[in-house]
Design goal:
Helix content: under 10%
Distance between the termini: 72 Å
Largest sheet: 6 strands, antiparallel
Shape: elongated
Order of helices and strands: EHHEEEEEHH
Number of helices: 4
Number of strands: 6
Strand order of the largest sheet: 1-2-3-4-5-6
């Protein structure tokens, strides 16, 4: 850094080339490759600014107005560590307009909610200390090579939807869904179904109670000929996967 203060990154205008100089059509001494010929507008969205400034040393840097390597996005503020993959960027325009991006080669931690000025533990417990809200769009939490753990005094999953195709909680596993608890209570207001194409076991080492206003059992004995009380229609619907 200059002793006279921060130095503009684009001193002598050599940090940000003009868009015209990047266009292959303005380089007549070069033969265009097939790729360049097919992408004549590749640099049409290249960002240009002449007011970018920055401070830095061998440990890291802070820049304002820096253009990303792909030349398609301008960062309002960017923090860079010595490792180029460790950075924090507030982007202004392009395909990441309004984005906040943090990348790191190590762990990313957020810790909050100590509240040293609140004495009652119950009062602290009732507070919403960490809030992540997307006003529109999805929230994606992904562990590409690891586990996702949710741990708390209680865990609440709430799905709200106004139409019949909304308001669902869906769990999909390639192998097992395992639930263990002292008590499991499932209440379905309209419809409840358990099904498997293979084997189902219902086991109670104590007392097994079953109640229904009407209880009907159907087996494949009705496959060729219906019983006196019916059941073949249901059996056929089950075999068809309905």
């Amino acid at each position: 850094m200059s002793s006279n203060g921060p130095t503009a990154q684009n001193t002598d205008n050599n940090r940000t080339p003009s868009r015209d100089s990047l266009l292959p059509s303005n380089q007549p001494d070069r033969n265009l490759s097939p790729l360049e010929a097919g992408q004549s507008n590749k640099y049409d969205t290249a960002k240009i600014n002449y007011t970018a400034i920055g401070w830095g040393n061998d440990h890291g840097s802070v820049t304002m107005g820096q253009i990303h390597k792909s030349s398609d996005v301008t960062s309002a503020v960017m923090l860079n560590a010595r490792d180029g993959l460790h950075q924090f960027s507030l982007d202004n325009d392009g395909q990441r307009r309004g984005w906040t991006t943090s990348t790191s080669t190590g762990a990313f931690q957020v810790k909050c909610g100590k509240y040293p000025w609140i004495e009652k533990a119950a009062e602290k417990e009732a507070l919403d200390s960490c809030v992540i809200e997307a006003e529109h769009g999805n929230i994606v939490i992904k562990a590409s090579n690891g586990k996702i753990r949710l741990e708390g005094t209680d865990i609440e999953l709430v799905s709200k939807g106004e139409k019949t195709d909304r308001g669902s909680i869906k769990m999909t596993a390639s192998e097992n869904i395992i639930m263990e608890s002292k008590k499991t209570i499932i209440n379905a207001k309209n419809y409840y179904k358990m099904s498997t194409p293979q084997t189902m076991e219902i086991i109670a080492n104590g007392v097994l109670k079953m109640y229904g206003a009407v209880i009907r059992g159907v087996s494949d004995a009705v496959d060729k000929k219906d019983s006196k009380v019916g059941g073949r229609q249901f059996q056929q619907r089950v075999k068809e996967g309905a």
